[in-house]
Amino acid sequence: MNHTLRRTLSVTAALVAGLSLAACSGTEGTGDAAPGEQAGTEHAEMEQAEHHNEADTEFAQMMIVHHQGAVEMSELALEKSESPAVQGLANRIAAAQQPEIDRMTDWLDEWGEESDPAAMDMESMDHEGMDMSGDGMEGMDHGDVDTEPVSQDEAMATLETLDGADFDRQFLHFMIAHHQGALTMSQNQTSEGVNEDALALAADIAEAQAAEIAEMEELAAQVAG
């Protein structure tokens, strides 16, 4: 083989080897980028989930306590109410709000915030929405229900003394006022919160509880009649 031919073959081999190496490097680079991009996406999603402000924290903390009050009253209604409609409503309230309590508890844990209601500094929080006096119900016929401002403990103590239609009237009055408080809390969250999950839950709570208020007002009118 002459010198010129050997030199041509050597150059060709070098080019082929170079192209093969580049192709392998490109393939390996693509393979490495995919997990990196996935990790970056997961990190961004985690950052978004953890992104919150003081309003988000207070919304979750206060709504947990608020929901627990509704669940507590609903469980009592399942024991004492004689109205299938009231019992059905109470069952739906408890079934919907307990999972929301669990979700908000998980958020607070993820955010590094206090999630135990017993350890929360409730005195420093805005208690608007925790009063079950029914101040926004001036147009309703209250009949013989207690319309004085009451706490959760006072509401439960009152309900424990009642049965039948008397229980139903008082339960509906308290729960309407309780739901109105949740609407106020949800509106505050919509105005001041930043966490997307908390904002979405506030919107869901407002929609669901506004519908339940309308339902309870109709039931209250039937019980009063």
From TrEMBL:
<keyword id="KW-0732">Signal</keyword>
<dbReference type="InterPro" id="IPR012347">
    <property type="entry name" value="Ferritin-like"/>
</dbReference>
<feature type="compositionally biased region" description="Basic and acidic residues">
    <location>
        <begin position="40"/>
        <end position="53"/>
    </location>
</feature>
<protein>
    <submittedName>
        <fullName>Uncharacterized protein (DUF305 family)</fullName>
    </submittedName>
</protein>
<dbReference type="InterPro" id="IPR005183">
    <property type="entry name" value="DUF305_CopM-like"/>
</dbReference>
<dbReference type="Pfam" id="PF03713">
    <property type="entry name" value="DUF305"/>
</dbReference>
<feature type="signal peptide">
    <location>
        <begin position="1"/>
        <end position="22"/>
    </location>
</feature>
<feature type="region of interest" description="Disordered">
    <location>
        <begin position="27"/>
        <end position="53"/>
    </location>
</feature>
<feature type="domain" description="DUF305">
    <location>
        <begin position="56"/>
        <end position="219"/>
    </location>
</feature>
